[in-house]
Amino acid sequence: MNTATLSLAGSHYPVAGHLTEPRWMRYLLLLMALGFLALFLLAPLLVVFIEAFRRGAALYWQAIADPDAWSAIRLTLLVAAISLSANMVFGVAIAWAITRFQFRGKQVLVTLIDLPFTVSPVVAGLVFILLFGRNGWFGDWLGGHDFKVVYAVPGVILATLFVTFPFVARSLIPLMQAQGSDEEHAALTLGASGWTIFRSVTLPNIKWGLLYGAILCNARAMGEFGAVSVVSGHIRGLTNTVTLHIEILYNEYMFSAAFAVASLLAFLALLTLALKSWVEWRTGSGQEPASS
To answer: In whole angstroms, how large is the CA radius of gyration of the chain?
Structure first.
């Protein structure tokens, strides 16, 4: 029987010939994959930058320097910073609870973490309107205290928190389950306090997983559209994030300005991808490489 050699982690293993593909098929599959990436991923990204600078750099910087654009950028950064900070705290807490304790309803909590993945962001936005809108469940109380949630910045923050909630927790749970709790138990027997154990043992072990989840959370927060679009009210200079500002510019046939602002998000996406790849390189197969 014909055999071929399969290389895994520096070792060579014989593989039956019928389990390998001919060279022409491997090249064909590779070309198909590269063609798909070029057509559906690289080409749209390239078009964004081409259209952004098509009418010159002066118009590009004019669109970026527009007061409404700057307001949208500031709001996007504010919402992303708040969402990231809150999700890092709650994500670590939830991952710690799920991987270190046994309690009734644990499986329900694990299932609820994935709820934002299964619910449409538009539906989530409608739920917030039902809860905090003028005619919502808490609308009378909020109106009586002169506090606005829907069609204001708090609503944008709540909607973003909802859609970004799973990323940090989902990055940490499998990592902490794989690591186990032996080191923490050893520190506990030596008399270390809970905070000391977390700061000196747990956090160093999960720092790369935490950074990975934070990168994904931040990327989703800056690019969120559906839920934010429902609760923001599209108020220029007040509740418009970058994605909503791009939509308004495009609907008003200001295509060059829309692509100029969109190029900022595209650049942030590329930066996020680079950071994500760097974290994956540092973590490798779940282990930080030894420093030289």
So the answer is: 24
Q: In this structure, what is the dihedral angle of CA atoms 167, 172, 175, 177, given to the nearest 10 degrees? A: -120
Residues ≥6 apart with Cβ < 8 Å to 57: none
Q: Report the candidate in 233, 100, 68, 261 with the shortest Cα–Cα distance to residue 154.
A: 233
128 near 161, Cβ under 8 Å? no
pLDDT in tens, 271-287: 888 888 888 787 764 44
Q: What whole-number distance in Å separates Cα of residue 264 and Cα of residue 103? A: 45
Beta bridge mates, 11? 8
- Taking the whole predicted model, whether its pTM rises above 0.85 is answered as no
d(CA 230, CA 209): 32
What is the rounded distance in angstroms from the CA atom of residue 73 to the CA atom of residue 244? 11
The C-alpha atoms of residue 231 and residue 154 are separated, in whole angstroms, by 9
Give the distance, in angstroms, between the CA of residue 108 and the centroid of all CA atoms in the same chain.
23
Using DSSP, state whether 152 is helix, strand or coil: coil
Closest listed residue to residue 230, CA positions, set 135, 102, 122, 138: 122
What tens digit of pLDDT does each residue of 157-168 get? Answer: 999 999 999 999
Residue 282 neighbours by CB distance under 10 Å: 14
**Is-contact 133 150, C-beta < 8 A?**
yes
State residue 120 phi and psi, 5-degree precision: -60, 135
Rounded CA separation 163/224 (Å)? 8
Q: Name the percent of the chain lying above pLDDT 90.
A: 32
